[in-house]
Amino acid sequence: MNFSKSFTKFALFTPLVFSAATIAATSNATNPPLQLQVYNASAHSFHVNATLVTGTTEAVVIDSGFSQADALRIAANVLDSGKNLKAILISNADPDFYFGAAALKQKFPQAKLVTTAAVREKIKGKMAAKLAFWSPKLGANAPATVLLPELLDNNQLSVDGQVIEVRGTSGVLAHRPYTYIPSIRTVLGNIAVFGQLHVWTADIQTATERAAWLAQLDELSALKPQRVIPGHMLPGTPEDISTISYTRDYLQRFEQEAAHAANSAALIKAMQQAYPQAGLGIALEIGAKVKKGEMHW
């Protein structure tokens, strides 16, 4: 081996490697942490959350609210931030996550409306029926139209160079992913985690799906996030890992009580006693009836 030639090549290459590493380190050091502003809707909108993620110049909205009033409040947060809204990410396929998208797009036409493939398919299959069902109930607060998001490239976005990842996009719950921001170790944009509410169980009916839900909660816990923004929460809920534990404990207690409850009324009573302060009673009412075979969902 020609050691002198190899050393010469190494000497020429090394400064380039160190230079690239130095640039990356400098970029990370000088890039301020992303900031989050959570919009927590009222009980009329199922206490759903939408989050504005901002950097030095750019912004992304994760989920768009349920009513037109929700969407306008989220839009006001964007305007107050003074940042360029580059994207609206719809994390899940329930109407309270995407009904506000058209109003946001009208205000911020440059922003891309995106979601994952599985979520897009769910929205596409039910959006007309959901709009027909909810419009009379919401009245003037209903969207005039519902927009179908475009496909999200590579399951990720960025804000001023900092990555926002969408995970949990495969398996039986591919249509229920979650969003994670590694740079600030934050879980958000999800339907799996609830805060101080009765958990919406009606959509997850098989043993395989329930096991997958618990597995996803374990996956979230393993990230050791510094902040967890539930998909739905009561005002004042701590935005931390305790909400993951709360949801897991609730699901397990629900299954235990359902196993020996004679009917939905008995199941509802047992869960109300176990969680006397929990909000979103409709989630328990419907979930219990579906679980006991008294309602088709």
UniProtKB/TrEMBL annotation:
SMART domains with a match to the protein in the record: Lactamase_B
Domain of life assignment: Bacteria
UniProt key word Signal: yes
Keywords, alphabetical: Signal
Residues annotated as transmembrane: none
Positions of the Metallo-beta-lactamase domain: 47-232
A Pfam family reported for this protein in Swiss-Prot or TrEMBL: Lactamase_B
Signal peptide: 1-20
Annotated PANTHER family: METALLO-BETA-LACTAMASE DOMAIN-CONTAINING, METALLO-BETA-LACTAMASE SUPERFAMILY PROTEIN
Name of the protein: MBL fold metallo-hydrolase
